[in-house]
Amino acid sequence: MADRPARRAPAPAAPAADAAAVGRLADEVLPALIARLEASTLGELEIRRNGWRVRLRRSTVDAAQPDGAGRRGTGRSRAAADQAAGTGRGAPLAAVGPGLPPKVADRRPAALSPAVGYFSPLGGLTAGVVVRSGDLLGHVDVLGVRQEVVAPADGVVGRYLAEAGEAVEYGQELVRLEAGRDDSVATVPAEAG
Amino acid sequence: MFERILIANRGEIALRILRTCRRLGIGAVVAYSEADRDTRAVQLADEAICVGPAEAKRSYLSAPAILSAAIVTGCDAIHPGYGFLSEDDTFAEMTRAHGLTFIGPPAEVLERFASKAGTRHLLASHGLPTVPGSAEMLRDDADALVEAERIGYPVLIKPSAGGGGRGMRMVRSPRELEQALTVCRSEARAAFGDDSLYLEKWLEETRHVEVQVIVDRYGHGVHVGERDCSVQRRHQKLVEESPSPALTPEASADLCRTAVEAVVAAGYENVGTLEFLVDQSGQAYFIEINCRIQVEHPVTEMRSGLDFVAEQIRIAAGEPLGYSQADVVLRGHAVEFRLNAEDVAHDFRPQAGEVQRYLAPGGPGVRMDSHLYPAYEVPPFYDSLLGKLVVWGPDRSSALARARGVLDEVVLEGLITNLDFHRALLRNETFIEGAFTTNLLDRIGSAAFVSSAPRPQAVG
Q: Is A4 helix (H, G, I), strand (E, B) or coil?
C-alpha cells in the first residue's frame, strides 16, 4: 500500500475567504452550542453547515464522581461500551447525570497515561502540591519499563483518578490538576520512589 | 483452551475474530488505537483497551503496548489478525516469554519462514517449484545488476519482509532497475523496517493461485483447496475465488497435495497460505507463504464449512487437527469482493470519512464481513478495506449471477467506494469467461471500465 499516496482525510482546504466564517463560528456559534450541550443530558452534539462540521463532546469524568466509578479497571467495560453503541458513538452518558450539569472544573487539565500498564503515583505527591508543566507525577509500568506521567500544565495537584497499582489504558486521565496560585506553599518533592 | 483472548487488530478482522471467540465461549478483549474508539469490535467486546495513538507504530505495531494490554486485562492469548504483528517472530517470542500464547505459528516457525528467499529455498528442497531468482539478498546495486542480467529481464524487485505490494517493482532494463532500487528500499524500510531486497524473474501473463493449509504441531496437515486471486491492482487483491477457473480439478488436487506435503515436511504449524504464480502452460511456481489468517479466508470457509479462526485457536492451544484430508469436503464455488474506500476513477486513491448510509446485502449463500455502521467514521490512518462480500453458488456461473444481484443490494453512502468497479467487473466478458491473468485491470483501464458500470436501481 506504500505505492499509494499517504493516507490523509480529504481535508477541505481552508481558503482565506473562509477565515471570516471560522471567526463567526468561534464567536457566535460555539458559545451557543456549548450552552446548549451544558443544558442538555447529551454526551455529544454535532452540527453541520455549509460544509463545516462542529462536534462537541462532553468530558466523561466529573470531579464529583468517585474515583473509578463508571469504568472498570482498564479500558471500557462492556456496559460502557454498550452505552456508547446505543448512542451511536461518543462519550457514555454515565459520567454526567441529568440535573448535574458539567462544571467549568471539568475542563481542568489532567495528566494522562502515556501507555497501557500499571500506574504508580510519585511518592509524597498529594493533593495541594504545586506543579509546573512537565513535572513528573508518576509512572506507568509497561512490561517493567517505567513511562513518565507528567503534568500537562502548571497547577495544583487535585484528586487522583487512578489508584496506585491500577491497570490503566493509553490516554486515561490519571491526576486532576486544579488552577494554580502564585503564592505557592509547596513544591514537587524529589522522587521518593 | 484459552479463557480470554486479546484481539490485537482492527476493522473487519477484529470483528471476525470476536465472533469466533463468542461462538467458542472465550472472552474477547479488543485492543484499539485512539482513532478506533468507535469501531464495532470495540463496542461488542467484553472489554476494550486503548493501546496508543492513531499512528500504528505506537499502537497496533507496538509489541510492548499490545503485550501490556493483554497482561493488564488478564488475557491468556493474543490473536494478531493479519498485517501488523501477525507474522512477527520477535513478538511471538515476547508473547511466550510473558507466559501468553500467540495465536499463529510459534516463534521458531515464524522465524524459519520469515525470509521469503529462505522460504523459497526451504520449500524448494521439499519439492515445490520456484520462480528463477537471485540466490541471496541483493548486496548492493552492482550485485542487483549482475543478478538481473543472469535471470534475464524483465525482473521483479521484492522486499524480503512484508507483503501487500509495498516495495515491489517490475523493471525491464538495467536503467529502470537502478532507478527502482532506491524507491523499493525506502518503501520496504518504511513499511517493514527492513530494506533487504531480492529479484525474481517476471513471468508474463500469470495467475495468482494460493493454497490454504492447516497443520497441527504433531505433523498432521490438510489443504483446504486453492483460491485464485488474479484480479489485482498493483499486487493488491480485489477479488478472490475458489476454485481457480484456470485449474482442472486434477491440477488443483496435485498442486494442493504438493503444497501441504512440502509445508508439513518443512515443519510448518497452524493456518497458512502458500502463494503460487501459474503460467499459461499451467506450471505453478511457489512465491511465498503467509503465516497468518488471510483477508480472503472466507472464500474457503464458504466452500469447506471450516472456521479458520477457530482452527488457529485450537492449534495454538495444542489440540490435534482431529480430521484428515478425506474429511475436508469442498463444495461449489465462492467469490469474494473487497469493498474498499477508494476512488477507482482517480488511481484508486484511498478515502476517509463518515458512512452516512449502510445497508448490507443478504440471502442464501451470501456473507458480508464488515465493521461498518451508519455514522461510523472511516479513519484515514489505516487500510481502506470496508468489508468483504462473499457469495457462494453450486458453480461459478451461479455464484457470479448471485453476486450481481447482491452487489446491487449494497447501499454504502458518504464515501467513494469501489462498488461500481465490482459491478462492472461482473459484466466484463474476460472475467466472466475466467480466462484472465493478473494484468486484467491494466488491460481494461480501470477508470473507463468503471464508468461503463450500470448503476443499480435505487433501493430503500
A: coil
d(CA A169, CA B69): 8
For cell 520469515, name the residue.
B114
Q: Rounded to a whole number, what is the distance in Å from the CA of A14 to chain B's nearest CA?
A: 17
Measured at the CA of B237, the angle between CA B233 and CA B239, to 5 degrees, comes to 105
Which residues are within 8 A (CB) of A131 and not within 5 positions of it... i.e. 6 or more apart?
A137, A151, A154, A155, A156, A157, A177, A188
- Mapped onto helix, strand or coil, the DSSP state of residue B83 is coil
Residues of B catalogued as catalytic:
292
Q: How far apart are CA B300 and CA B307, in angstroms?
A: 9
Is the dihedral angle over the CA atoms B305, B308, B313, B315 positive or is it negative? positive
Containing domain of residue A53, as a range?
15-105
Residue A5 lies in a domain: no
Give the pLDDT mean for A147-169. Answer: 96
pLDDT of residue A30: 65
* Residues B274 and B390 both lie in one domain: yes
* Full domain range(s) for residue B248: 207-451
CB pairs under 8 A between A and B: 114
Q: Is A142 domain-assigned? A: yes
DSSP summary character for residue B130? B
Residues in A whose CB is inside 8 Å of some CB of B read 1-5, 7-10, 72-78, 81-82, 84-85, 88-90, 115-118, 142-143, 145, 167-172
The residue behind cell 486485562 is B73
Residue B438 carries which DSSP code? T
Q: For the stretch A112-142, what's the b/e string if a residue is b when 16 or more beta carbons lie within 10 angstroms of its beta carbon?
A: bbbbbbbbbbbeebeeebbbeeebebbbbbb
Which candidate from A78, A145, A168 shows the least CB-CB separation from B46?
A: A78
Chain B residues touching A76 at Cβ < 8 A: 42, 47-49
ipTM entry: 0.85
For residue A104, which of A68, A66, A59 has the smallest C-alpha distance? A59
**Cα separation of B197 and B220, whole Å?**
34
Helix (H) or strand (E) holding B233: strand B221-233
Grid coordinates standing for B139? Answer: 548486496
Contacts of A142 in chain B (CB under 8 A): 64-65, 68
Query: How far away is chain B from the Cα of A11, in angstroms, using its nearest Cα?
Result: 10
Give the whole-angstrom CA distance, residue A61 versus residue A102. 9
In this structure, are B172 and B251 located in the same domain?
no
Report the residue of chain B nearest A143, measured CA to CA: B68
Could you give the 3-state DSSP secondary structure of residue B182?
helix
Smallest CA–CA distance from A7 into chain B, residue:
B380
The secondary structure element, H or E, covering residue B96 is helix B89-97
Could you identify the residue written with the cell 477457473?
Answer: B245
Q: With CA atoms as reference, report the closest residue to B152 among B182, B180, B136, B173.
A: B173
The maximal CA–CA distance of chain B, rounded, in angstroms, is 62
pLDDT tens digits along A41-75: 566 655 555 555 666 665 543 333 333 333 333 44
One domain, residues A140 and A152:
yes
Count up the domains in chain B and report the number: 3
Across the interface, do A7 and B380 touch by the CB < 8 Å criterion? yes
Residue B436 has pLDDT above 50, yes or no: yes
Answer yes or no: do A167 and B51 touch at CB < 8 A.
Answer: no
Contacts of B69 in chain A (CB under 8 A): 116, 169
Average pLDDT, integer, range B275-296:
94
